[in-house]
Structures are given as structure tokens and as C-alpha cells.
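[Automated response] Your request has been received and processed.

Submitted sequence:
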Amino acid sequence: MTTPGTAKDAAAASVATQEMPPRGFDVQKIREDFPILKQTVYGKPLVYLDNAATAQTPQTVIDAIDRFYLAQCANIHRGIHLLSERSTAEYEETRAKAQRFLGAAETREIVFVRGTTEAINLVANSYGRKHVGAGDEILITAMEHHSNIVPWQMLCEEKGAVLRVAPINDAGEIVIEEFEKLLNRRTRLVSVSHVSNALGTVNPVERMIEMAHGKGVPVMIDGAQAAPHLKINVQKLDCDFYAFSGHKLYGPTGIGILYGKASLLEAMPPYQGGGDMIRTVSFEKTTYNALPYKFEAGTPNIAGTIGLGAAIDYLNQLGLEQAAAYEHELLAYATKKVSQLPGVRIIGTAREKASVLSFVIDGVHPHDAGTILDQQGIAVRAGHHCAMPVMERFGIPATTRASFAFYNTIEEVDALVSGIEKVQEVFS
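Generated structure:
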């Protein structure tokens, strides 16, 4: 396990050549797009650093949802009246926006789900049940979110299969040689996070996909933390499945995307039965709808889907790559400042990171640290972050996690540092 001194040295070294965030990125102007950021908490300006859990929503997304309920609230598909036609058109346009956002080949490769968790469960139940049997193996990594562990455990228990776990090193990076060794003739699926929610590690997924495909193994990518911060092209990655959640992408809760290669989705049975996923129904037999509708049973989250489309529009207008560059500099600045604090240890010092800064304070439980930071108006996440095996790997019960978005500022990082010093003062 990394010692406190080693962690600080690694963190400091990783930002030694970094400079302040680029001046061309007008953060103050961008913040005007997010009404919630203008409020105070306990009499202090809100410093929102819990973006890895849920990002805030710009006014344009709120307006899109309001417009649906105010002017066109109606169910989609099959309706022949004007409101239904409007809603259907905007709903399906979001599918096209998601296709372009992910670089997918066809709109039918885009399935609307409630979020990344449901997407993984869909693949586990539909693809997994069909292709995984007794003695087979599923390969994940030691840095996964519970949503990318539990569905595979459930499948393995049902089928008599084995869940294999590729280890991570003291910096929180995948040990790629061990990952490759675990790929074998019994491996039926690989499922890995693109970016770790607990550590911020950016995994070398393109290389991992290439290794898996070399053994004929399909790959599912949990992109919940990657989609808001990295430019994604699923065709370039050549992944078989990719998932992300709308609420981490500055959109509404309860909506997300599963991308799957059309050839795989075509061969998969429906995940749920009900309305809209059928062609014909009789008491003798049901025939299923075409892609992607056979995976979209029941009335969907229409307002949320339209809101997600607005969020994608917002990011496209803002420029995701420019925003990501700013976030990278912000994270580097925060890493440097926090690593210089005595008695504070950063958990997760990978060479490639995005958005997340997790840390522990000597003699202070993360829940206590989070409570005191909250009293300073600073919103962070404290706990195991639905990644208990990561905490076990580093020999800690939990961390305090600050996670950044393009609307955060240098001043807010400084407020975080002052807040940590306040925590230490209280517990001194």
C-alpha cells in the first residue's frame, strides 16, 4: 500500500509541469448557465464538488423539460395527434444526438435506459444469460463501482460461472499484464470502467479492448464517469457495449444510454416485456420489435430523454474537449494544493486521471470531514463511493471525494483547501 509520503510525492510529481487553468475558458460566464450555483449554504457561497455523483443542470436543460410539460406532454410512438408527434420527434432526435455524441454507426445501436446501472444489468441479463454457462468466466477490475460488480456476481451465481478480478497497483492503475493473463478460453465477457469513480483513474480501455478481442471476448465499458469528461468514439474504441448516465452529463436523473453493436443487440433477447417492445401479441405467441425498441418496454422517461438531448446540445456548444482541458488543469491545481497539506493523503495517484480527487485526513473519519466541509458551504462526497473493494485494497473504510466540473473555479479549490485546514483545526 502507498505510504503517505509516497502518495504526496507521486501527486506532486504528476502536476509539477502543470500551470493554472487556461484564461480563454470563461468560467464565470459558464456559471451563469447554472442557476443552482448562485445559492448560499449556511450563509456561505455554495462550492459544489460532488459532480461525480450528480452534475448540476444548465438552464437550457431545465427549459427543455419545462417545454415538454408545458407545450407537448403526450406519450410517444403510435400517437396520431400533434402533441404525440412533437414528443416522438424530439425523443427520437435525442437518440440521433446520442449516436453522434458516442460516434456510433447507427441510431438503432442506442438504447434508452434509466442509467448506467440499468444498462449493465440489461447486458448481464440479456447477453450474459445467453452466452455464460457453468465454468465460464467474466473479467472485471478491482476498481469497479458496485454496479459493475453485483450484476456479474448475480449472473455467475445463477450460471455457476466465475468472476475474475484484475488487480490494481498502489497508484490505482490497472496492472495490465495481470489483466492480460486473466483472459483465457473460458472468458465470456470483460466489463470495465473507463474512469474510476473512486480514484479518477482513466483506464487504457482501447488497449484492454484490443487484448480481449484478441481472445475473441466482447467488452462492456462503464462510461458513467468518462462521458462527461472525455471525447468518446465507440467505433474507434471498438467496444461492444458502452453505457453512461444523463445526470452525470449535466442532464436529468433517471435517463441514460446503452450503446451496443447492432450485430450483438440483434441476437440478444429482450430484457423486459411490455408495451412498445413488441410487433404482435397473441395468447399463443409474441413477436418482438426491431432495434432498439425491443429493449425499451413501457412508457419511457420522455421528459428526461428530451432533457438529455438538451444536455448533449449544451456540451457540444460549449466544446467538450475545451471543457476537459480546463478540468484537467483544475484537477492538477487541486492535486498540488491538497498534496501539500500535512496529514492529508491522496488515494488514487494514477498518471492518467479525470475529475476526481479522493483523500483521507489523519485522525478524521471522512464522514466527519464531509460534515465540517458542508458547514463551510462545500459539498463533497464522503464514504466508500459504491466501491467497497477499492477501499479494502487501500486499507481504509472510506475517503472524502472532491470531484470537479467545468463550472468549478480555482477559488473553489482554494476554499476546499481552507476547508480541509478547518477540519484539521477542529480535530486537533
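Summary generated for your ticket: Residues 82-102 form the longest helix (21 residues). Residues 1-19 have pLDDT under 50 and may be disordered.
If you did not submit this request, please reply to this message.
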